[in-house]
Amino acid sequence: MNIGSVVRAVVIALVSGVAGYSLRQPDPAPPGATTNGGEMAHASSRSNSPPASPLIAVASDGNVTLRVDQQPLEWVLEQIALQGGNVTATSIAVAIRPPSSAEPSCREPTGAARIEPAKLLQEIERGSEEQRVQGLLEARSAGVFVPDGTLKTLFETDASERVRLHAFEAYLERQTGDNAALRRTLEAAALIPSALIQREARVRLNELTDMERMEALFKQRTGS
To answer: How far is CA 90 from CA 3, 77, 155, in A?
Structure first.
């Protein structure tokens, strides 16, 4: 339900209620025209006429029907909210109330802000297999620097093939753009006693060779 529509409807209802209340007030009697019988008849008519009950109806399409006389605004908003179901009286009241500059701003810290680099490095170096894997992944995503020596030790000697692979990928990322250094690393990794690292190193070497061949062919054709 649109908050602006609700507020406009409430304002219209309150204005209508005030106007209706004014129309129902009896005209002042001229001086001396009031008699005991007239006062009794007027009191009787007031006692016999039932008070108008407030009407607040919220349709399924969000339209609001209001007939409210002399009721507090908070009560009207609460009734609309109770029938609307998806809007609370508090949210409506806040929507029509100007924001206060004194309200504190409470923001959740980002994932990177909650990471403690020292603790993360400790888990990567001495944690369980799952902690080492998750630590490497979190360090890459959050930009936490893991020393080259730590990564090299992990992909060369770690007991877990998963840890080796993640450490190897993180180590290779730092050599992007330097084909000579990347080739030396891949050639050395192809000799490591790990079937997974050897296979990955050979695949990367073939990709690097193909890329260098294409670069040389492009330079030959363009004369650059």
So the answer is: 12, 9, 57
Contacts (Cβ under 8 Å, ≥6 apart) of 186: 172, 201, 204, 205, 208
Q: Which residues on neighbouring strands pair with residue 18, listed in sequence order?
A: none
Separation in Å, CA 87 to CA 1, 55, 73, 223: 7, 19, 16, 69
* CB crowding 141-162: b at 16 or more within 10 Å, else e: eeebebeeebbbebbbebeeee
Which residue numbers in the chain have pLDDT < 70?
1-64, 66, 68, 83-114, 224
Instruction: At 204, give phi and psi (nearest 5°).
Output: -65, -35
Measured distance CA(80)–CA(209) in Å, rounded = 71
Q: What are phi and psi of 59, to 5 degrees?
A: -80, 165
Report the candidate in 7, 6, 1 with the shortest Cα–Cα distance to residue 85.
Answer: 1
Report phi then psi at 114, rounded to 5: -80, -15
What is the rounded distance in angstroms from the CA atom of residue 72 to the CA atom of residue 82?
16
How far, in whole angstroms, is CA 109 from its chain's centroid?
Answer: 12
Q: What SS3 class is residue 67?
A: strand
- Residue pLDDT, tens place only, 148-172: 999 999 999 999 999 999 999 999 9
